[in-house]
Amino acid sequence: MSIREFKVSVDESQIEDLHKRIDLIRWPDEINDEMWSLGTKKSFLKDAMHFWKNDFDWRKHENQINDFGSYKFKTKDGLEIHFIHSKSKSENSIPILITHGWPGSVQEFFKIIPLLNQYKDGLSFDVICPSMPGYGFSDKPTEKGYDSKKIAQINHELMVALGYKKYIVQGGDWGSTVSKWSAELYPKEVMGLHLNLVIAFPPEKDDPMEGVTEHEQALLGRYAKYLELGSGYFEIQRTKPQTLGYSLNDSPVGLAGWIIEKFHSWTDDEKDKLMVSLEDVISIVSLYWFSESITSSMRLYNENGREGFSKSRINVPTGCALFKNEIMLPPKAWAKEIYNLIHWEHYDGGHFAALEKPETLEKDIRLFVQKLKI
Predict the structure, then answer these.
(1) What is the CATH number of the domain that holds 122?
(2) Known active-site residue 135
(3) Average pLDDT over residues 72-86
(4) Residue 351 is a catalytic residue
């Protein structure tokens, strides 16, 4: 059988080692930076490291992973993929495959999974959340070729092994590109595509701004700001992930500083705080730390290049939930060039929608699936 149960169990010696490394942090200096404009704020990170060592309980989060239904799937290429499989107790539940991105993990979905499992509005969902290759407790590829397209193929292989003939795909961040590839490669099996990061660029026509409203033009400024002030990490991870990986794999404060900054700038960078709980973020940082997957996870940027995205139009019905603090908020007219849009809504929130606004995202997924009339 290619699927087996997998219990996450970090050895106590790894936790002790983490605590020793936190005790030995050598802090850099800092220019007073209330708004994180140069990166993760030092006082915030100091508090976070104190919390990580003294108040954070990894065993609680480890058990949470196991309680949701933790498994491993061996692909035809021999790679073992970790995944969560949480089945609804209701009959005729619809399978939904949710793919995370970077620096996320399957833990992003622990608030939305129980909501989707519930029978409500005539719908319930079996939720499948794979850890992408090189992420979390999935195997790390030892050769190149594992881009978003390849991950979509692995995800489909998993769904077939689980016995699902048709399913919904959902994603944000790199999960958005993986989900789009799933719809493109498997249009007969994928019943619907739902995105909370909508990737769409100006169409190749005389007036790419045709049909774009004034409000949508203003929203384009979010992506322009990201390119100017927040995309340096992308170019490093796209070009030299291995060099950066030595530092992040060896230093807990380096890893935490690198990841926490994204949970600040991609939720609401106008505030001097996180819009999600520190415990949730540290649980994700811990997963990267204990699985030693930060270097392998960053290699996906090198695999995908600048986009990881096929611009080919797809016919699979598509629903989009756009959160106002997202990195990219394209006009609907641009998205129509690529996706078969049947659903398009705007909400408050940011990049990590399932973590920030689980009830909102769950409601939007249900609204979209109702329109599919499955």
Answers:
(1) 3.40.50.1820
(2) no
(3) 97
(4) yes
